[in-house]
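A reminder from the course coordinator: this example appears on the midterm review sheet, so study it carefully.

Given structure:
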């Protein structure tokens, strides 16, 4: 069997991308050669290339040379759509849709997309977000578009971002390009003396646990399935090197879902009169709870409480409690390995079977099915 020599011109961050490629390479006995994208080898002559095209001129020259020599090549990005290539990449429109759904479920009406870079992939995520976003038009906070010659001045960028956040209507939601950009938003919130998630809610992309779980406020993130992207890109290249044709020119791998952490553990509340009731619900979600208990705790007539929810939210206090219990169950299903009985207890359901019935009625899935969707999304 001929052992294919494959050149890797891809980023090592995150490492799961390499893990996917290495798994396929091991199955087929590849010889891998990894080089920097900034200085691709001029003397290389092998069997196939896995590349992440980013517009860098030296890299584009190399890619054009590979194409002229008819060496099979697969691009793992969608940053250079004008360059004709076979691509296996993350589903960037779906990432945007997931972010919008996450903020829609939490009642946000004002949001921005933030990044320290700007390319076609960013536009795909914004387009996906806008497909289902129910709030005011999404603002685009793209630092290179306003930075001019000071694009690399992080202090200037932080001050600009802090000012944008301070002027934004509250509560406000930020969809960051990746987890690194999400940390910039978090730092700018601290600079502007804004509370996360109460004033500003933040979600990133990639679910880099080293970054997300080591912040002053742990960051929610969309889990990009980099391992499966790497594996499927390598499988496509193997097919091409063996004389076959790719099943399609562009394959998008679905993200695994939203990993909810502190930075989005909130619902947007735009009414100060309603806030004490919402706070009481949040603090007592695991206890027997209804409109009567809320009214008694706030020392207001029950009829006044009912009118407050009806006029400000358009539904009853009971409906709000149920909605937040389902949201908390989703968070625990996504972010923990707790058994259903423990989740039911934490969310105020009297037993697991009641949680199962209620959850399925609200989402169309059982809690077990909801958990499994993260495992299967990348395989679709």
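Designed residues:
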């Amino acid at each position: 069997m001929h052992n294919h020599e494959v050149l890797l011109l891809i980023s090592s961050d995150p490492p799961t991308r390499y893990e996917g490629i290495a798994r396929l390479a091991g199955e087929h006995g590849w010889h891998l050669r990894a080089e920097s994208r900034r200085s691709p080898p001029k003397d290389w002559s092998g069997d196939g290339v896995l590349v992440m095209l980013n517009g860098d001129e030296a890299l584009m020259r190399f890619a054009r040379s590979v194409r002229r020599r008819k060496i099979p090549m697969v691009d793992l990005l969608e940053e250079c759509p004008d360059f004709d290539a076979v691509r296996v990449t993350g589903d960037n429109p779906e990432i945007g849709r997931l972010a919008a759904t996450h903020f829609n479920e939490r009642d946000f009406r004002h949001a921005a997309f933030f990044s320290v870079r700007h390319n076609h992939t960013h536009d795909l995520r914004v387009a996906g977000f806008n497909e289902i976003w129910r709030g005011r038009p999404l603002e685009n906070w793209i630092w290179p578009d306003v930075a001019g010659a000071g694009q690399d001045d992080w202090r200037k960028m932080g001050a600009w971002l802090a000012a944008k956040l301070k002027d934004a209507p509250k509560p406000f939601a930020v969809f960051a390009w990746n987890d690194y950009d999400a940390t910039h938003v978090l730092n700018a919130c601290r600079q502007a003396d804004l509370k996360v998630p109460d004033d500003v809610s933040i979600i990133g992309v990639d679910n880099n646990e080293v970054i997300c779980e080591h912040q002053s406020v742990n960051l929610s993130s969309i889990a990009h399935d980099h391992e499966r992207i790497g594996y499927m890109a390598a499988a496509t290249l193997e097919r091409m090197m063996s004389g076959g044709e790719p099943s399609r020119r562009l394959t998008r791998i679905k993200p695994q879902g939203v990993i909810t952490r502190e930075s989005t553990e909130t619902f947007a509340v735009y009414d100060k009169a309603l806030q004490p009731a919402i706070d009481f619900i949040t603090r007592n979600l695991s206890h027997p709870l209804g409109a009567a208990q809320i009214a008694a705790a706030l020392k207001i007539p029950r009829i006044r409480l009912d009118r407050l929810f009806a006029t400000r939210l358009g539904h009853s206090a009971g409906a709000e409690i149920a909605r937040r219990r389902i949201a908390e169950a989703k968070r625990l299903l996504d972010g923990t390995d707790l058994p259903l009985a423990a989740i039911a207890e934490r969310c105020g359901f009297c037993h697991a079977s009641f949680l199962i019935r209620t959850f399925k009625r609200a989402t169309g899935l059982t809690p077990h099915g909801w958990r499994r969707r993260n495992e299967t999304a990348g395989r679709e």
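Residues 159 and 187 are 10 Å apart (CA to CA). Confidence is low (pLDDT under 50) at residues 376-380.
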